[in-house]
Design goal:
Structural class: alpha/beta
Strand content: 15-25%
Largest sheet: 6 strands, mixed
Number of helices: 10
Strand order of the largest sheet: 8-7-6-9-12-13
CATH superfamily of the largest domain: von Willebrand factor, type A domain
Shape: flat
Order of helices and strands: HHEEHEEHEEHHEEHEEEHEHEHE
Number of strands: 14
Oligomer: single chain
CATH architecture of the largest domain: 3-Layer(aba) Sandwich
Length: about 325
């Protein structure tokens, strides 16, 4: 039936050609489409159905739930880092008061310190050294570019579905939990292009396009993150291969496989510019190839970001847990 859509399929013709069971399934699909449309998850545009913003949020919530539900079955740890600062949310851990600390007084410990110092007597005389205050968590703001490899190998190796799921879940996480953060999505193959979470479901693959152009992706990410002068800035790159393309000075794409040293050099030059602007590049590798491992080793030496090898199945757990753990820093 080509692009006519489900509504143009005649169940009677299906019954004649494929039997009662196939016809019943077609009718059920039609009912499901109507239910989703009535619920506001999809809408009809022309001869096809598109997801609505509500539908995208629902899918993002489901992806987020799926990924975090796996954490109970895995021993993946968080990255602990301590920073001095003020403000943020109160914890249940107390410390001696120091000048500049938020005065979130732990009254019980403060009184007990005075009792231990003076002995059991009334009235209790509290002195400045007795004060204990609750520690706070510093919730950092950040701007993130999620760079998704859209080369053909991502489809052939069944990696694209996992990458897309992570993008939708991360988008939902930031919208619901960290609304002050900024998230941009870039897809890169022969060239890099700006994308939206909503647009991920409309991606069209061109079989005639070759290349993994990280250089252009880093360039575009640097420009987007350059709009934000404060907070943490990072690139999260998901890829299954080394860079095989770069932009020439003329704007034309140069592609070669195996990759040339020139492509690697141009890509690392752009990574160096990101480093100078305080942008951290964290890479999640979905393939263990010799070329990719060598390139990532050079990239991390320049940028000091982190590199992980992950299977498509555990990709979401790594990225979302790492994102959340980097948001909260204990204040001393």
């Amino acid at each position: 039936y080509g692009n006519k859509g489900l509504g143009q399929v005649d169940p009677n013709q299906v019954r004649e050609l494929m039997g009662d069971e196939a016809a019943a399934q077609i009718e059920q699909l039609g009912e499901l489409a109507k239910l989703l449309e009535d619920a506001g998850y999809i809408e009809k545009k022309g001869g096809r159905y598109d997801l609505t913003p509500r539908g995208m949020r629902k899918i993002g919530q489901k992806a987020l739930k799926d990924i975090f539900s796996q954490l109970k079955k895995d021993g993946f740890g968080k990255h602990k880092t301590s920073f001095t600062g003020s403000g943020g949310e109160r914890t249940d851990v107390a410390k001696k008061y120091e000048f500049g600390d938020p005065f979130l007084l732990d009254l019980e410990k403060t009184v007990m310190n005075a009792v231990f110092r003076e002995g059991p007597m009334t009235p209790v005389r509290i002195q400045p050294p007795d004060f204990e205050v609750y520690r706070t968590e510093l919730v950092t703001s950040s701007s993130t570019v999620l760079m998704l490899d859209m080369s053909r190998s991502m489809i052939l190796r069944n990696c694209w579905a996992a990458a897309k799921k992570v993008a939708m879940a991360l988008n939902q996480l930031i919208q619901s939990q960290y609304p002050r953060d900024n998230l941009y999505i870039i897809g890169f193959s022969d060239r890099a292009r700006r994308m939206t979470a909503e647009g991920l479901n409309q991606v069209q693959w061109n079989e005639q396009v070759y290349g993994t152009n990280m250089q252009h992706g880093f360039m575009m990410a640097r420009q987007l993150l350059g709009k934000h002068k404060s907070g943490n800035k990072q690139i999260i790159m998901i890829t299954d291969g080394e860079p095989t393309a770069h932009l020439e000075e003329t704007g034309e794409v140069f592609f070669a496989y195996p990759p040339t040293q020139r492509t690697v050099t141009e890509t690392l030059k752009e990574a160096t510019r990101c480093t100078r602007e305080g942008i951290v590049i964290n890479t999640f590798m979905l393939e263990k190839s010799r070329y990719l491992a060598k390139f990532i080793e050079q990239l991390t030496a320049i940028n000091k970001g982190r590199a992980f090898y992950s299977s498509p199945e555990s990709l979401g757990e790594y990225i979302l847990v790492d994102y959340v753990s980097q948001k909260r820093k204990h204040v001393k």
